[in-house]
């Protein structure tokens, strides 16, 4: 496995040297980080160039780095992460790019390169609000059409903004402000003097 990673790492440095922001090798995996402006071109090169031959997209997800490892994050907040597989070379790669604007996170769509990205990009749009330029059908996929906000963002309230219920008088589903009262659960600990037979 180490030799394959060496070969892939050398090929990435040779073929994408001017576009690599970082290339990290950890736990037997390579993570390539590129700028959002280079993201689509790099993805296409990774797919089409026989030196890489990443013909399969395994996963694509959004990430909110508002805080990371219990510390404030320095840099762009939203990222898109792809996991790629080359069947020809039998190697994997993680590709990451950060959206340049935190107010309107936007990156290019890779659906024209890998069809499998279609629903993954819709999910990242729905849950994180990341816009994928060039996506032909970018709409919510998991939440309701009337849903407000993006529930996987770290600043989204756990209880949400609204709740829905069926109203028998109106004979339809209605939205209303959340009625759940915030509370803190404190575990009750019972300690018996003779617990476990220890005196």
Give the helix proportion (percent range): 10-25%
Structural class: alpha+beta
What would CATH call the architecture? 2-Layer Sandwich
Counted beta strands: 11
Query: Which consecutive residue ranges, at least 5 long each, have pLDDT under 50?
Result: none
* Mean of all residue-level pLDDT scores: 90
Alpha carbon gyration radius: 23 Å
Tell me the span between the first and last alpha carbons: 56 Å
> What fold name stands as the CATH topology?
Beta Polymerase, domain 2
Using the coordinates above, name the CATH class: Alpha Beta
Count up the helices: 3
Strand content range: 25-35%
Q: Which strand order does the major sheet show?
A: 1-2-7-6-3
Q: What would a concise description of this structure say?
A:
The protein has helices at residues 2-16, 36-48, 117-128, and strands at residues 22-26, 29-35, 56-64, 67-68, 71-72, 78-86, 91-98, 106-108, 131-133, 162-167, 172-177.
What does this molecule look like?
This protein has helices at 2-16, 36-48, 117-128; strands at residues 22-26, 29-35, 56-64, 67-68, 71-72, 78-86, 91-98, 106-108, 131-133, 162-167, 172-177. By secondary structure, it is an alpha+beta fold. It has one domain (2-144): Beta Polymerase, domain 2. It is extended.
